[in-house]
Amino acid sequence: MTLTISPAMMILSAKTLSSSPFLLRYSPYPQNRNSKPVSASQAFPESEYSTERGLTFDTGDSFFRPESATGRDLGVLAASLYKKSKGSVRILDAMCGCGVRSLRYLVEAEADFVLANDANEDYGKTILENLSQVLGDSEEERRWIVTHSDANRVMTECYLRRDFFDLIDVDSFGSESSFLRSAYNALKLDGLFYVTSTDGYSSGGHRPYHGGALREASVLGYRVTPLFSYYSYHGPVFRVMLRMNRGKLPENRNYGFISYCTECGNSQAFLWNELGQIGCPCNDAKVSSSLIVSGPLWIGPLHDAAYLTEMLNLAEQWGWTSNESETHLGKLLKQMIEESDPKLPFGYIKLDEVATRAKINSPPLRTMMSALHKEGYAVSRSHIASNAIKTNCRMTQCIRIAKELQRF
């Protein structure tokens, strides 16, 4: 790989943190794709360390959330599937923190190359120690480098050098909107963009799913489609894996507006040409002050069922769903597959809201789902909330069914 001179930034070397006139410089540790992590005692002889999926690492003074392990699991599975499909995978970890995500991409997904970047220079020693577990026995192929610069700058420099990546992971805090353009530019066509938002309203309106990401891609002449969409309560955190290709979406039916009626609880999706017809059945389909409209945003499928099935199969092969303590990932993937039913709408309904509107106790989730199935409605559990369902049954009918269940 050819390196070019670029404006100065901080680069991590084996012994010191120093400024360099090069944007990217390889770490001094040669790597190969058959490398394995060294033991904990070798890597951290005098340090307290954490473990994740059997890998040992030091968090140092970095911001680290053990609760985010599931999001990292999903990213590793996607990276591994990409490599199995394409033969290789190069990954840019734009905000790597302590480096555990980069380490997992290298070891578990067997990434051919990882650029691990974090703007905080104080994390440098920790990142280097973690990634130096991936030792190699050849200087001909180095599998990772560590840089310290602003994430947008790193991605833009890669784009200018035409150094494109197969998967870009931006695990940001707050809105993802400021990183979208530079990430798309540095991503290969048919590549994967793993985006994060802990501020869902910033780019997606009241429904924090893919609105800004879709708009920004369209401006650049790309189309993106979600392979999976993951929500975690801590933060809260929204993580979405997008696949990017050239061109516009084949249909506009997946991009529009969503209305929610505070009076009856009903939600509906509307396309651009239906903006003048937004209304609610509880008000004779007329515009009402009880309507809250969000958009434009993605109103299509949040998951690709076939892709999730591949992820689940791989997780089972790796033994990530077999142990009692690891069943959460398997249940999550199965729920996402169920949520992928094309008959199901964009949102979800909390049974607590149904009970409040019906003025009854909340019905048991399985009982409610069974009743909906018997009446011919599509229904699944929602992974976003424990007592919520996705269904094509309107709120008014959900209330009726819940009241009928209360009689028995």
Q: Helix and strand layout, with pairings?
A:
Blueprint: E1 5-12, E2 17-22, H1 40-43, E3 50-52, E4 55-57, H2 69-86, E5 90-93, H3 100-107, E6 113-117, H4 124-131, E7 144-148, H5 151-160, E8 165-170, H6 180-186, E9 187-197, H7 201-204, H8 211-219, E10 222-232, E11 237-246, E12 255-261, E13 267-270, E14 291-298, H9 305-317, H10 327-339, E15 349-350, H11 351-358, H12 365-374, E16 379-381, E17 388-391, H13 395-406
Parallel strand pairs: 5-6, 5-8, 6-7, 8-9
Antiparallel strand pairs: 1-2, 1-7, 3-4, 9-11, 10-11, 12-13, 12-14, 15-17, 16-17
Helix pairs in contact: 2-9, 5-6, 9-10, 11-13, 12-13
Which terms summarize this structure?
408 residues, alpha+beta, nine-stranded mixed beta sheet
The backbone outline, from C-alpha atoms, is globular
Instruction: Describe the main β-sheet briefly.
Output: 9 strands, mixed
Mean pLDDT rating: 83
Rg on CA atoms, Å: 23 Å
Series of secondary-structure elements, N-terminal to C-terminal = EEHEEHEHEHEHEHEHHEEEEEHHEHHEEH
Strand line-up of the largest beta sheet? 2-1-7-6-5-8-9-11-10
Helix proportion: 25-40%
Structural class: alpha+beta
Helical element count? 13
How much beta, percentage-wise? 15-25%
Distance N terminus to C terminus? 71 Å
Q: Unreliable runs, pLDDT <50, ≥5 residues?
A: 1-42, 201-209
Say how many strands there are.
Answer: 17
